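Annotated sample (chain length 241).
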Amino acid sequence: MRIGNDSAIVSIVVPCLNEEQAIGPLVASLWAAGLDEVVVVDGGSTDRTADIARTEGATVVLEPRRGYGRACAAGTQAARVDATILAFIDGDGSDDPGFAKVIIGPVMRREADFCIASRLRGAREGGSMTASQIVAGRLAGMLVWVLYGARYTDMAPFRALRRDTLMTLGMRETTFGWNLEMQMRIAARRLVIREVPTGCRQRNGGVSKVSGDLRAVLPAAATLVRTFLRLALVLRRSPVR
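Output written by the structure step:
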């Protein structure tokens, strides 16, 4: 991938579960943005998500065990060995791939160790984020700031960092707490963070697994609380554990 005068091999990991309406246009848009590899991790879809992703030229990884963190880990492991930067984006089409260079650029230029989208600071389509998502992002950001002095406004899935940085973080979370874990571990290490305002669109088909329905929201919220409390204790002892 080339951005201005800088270039690097960049693989992007796309966790998916029943996203057949969104995955084709998303993969095509990621290729158009200049990514070197698109790794779609299918977490057990019952629709044509995996087939459509393959048709669009993505590397498809089947991860039968459910869990967002497991999917991200599987995609990381499957990414091409010469990729020096790894990016992540959800497969529902809500994050705009047009911002890929804005997210990846600061990491490529070594202006930041970690770059993350902020949907809350950017232009959002009406109904693209639920109140619970907005509150969770702001609350997590406030707690991380209190503990580590690092400022986040969101837990957006659209993010990028160098592969060697990710490998030293010691990521362990297998659930939707994976995003929060990454942000906490990076903050605890005092790494350089860049948060970039981006757009957010209504999801292009499929059903959200963590928002909009109390049966999904409450377990997801409980997972985030457990993740935060566990990591706050672990990272207090050692930021690399």
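Annotation: The beta strands are 2-3, 6-7, 10-16, 37-42, 59-62, 85-88, 114-118, 159-162, 193-197.
Annotation: Helices lie at 20-32, 49-55, 68-78, 100-108, 131-148, 163-169, 178-188, 214-237.
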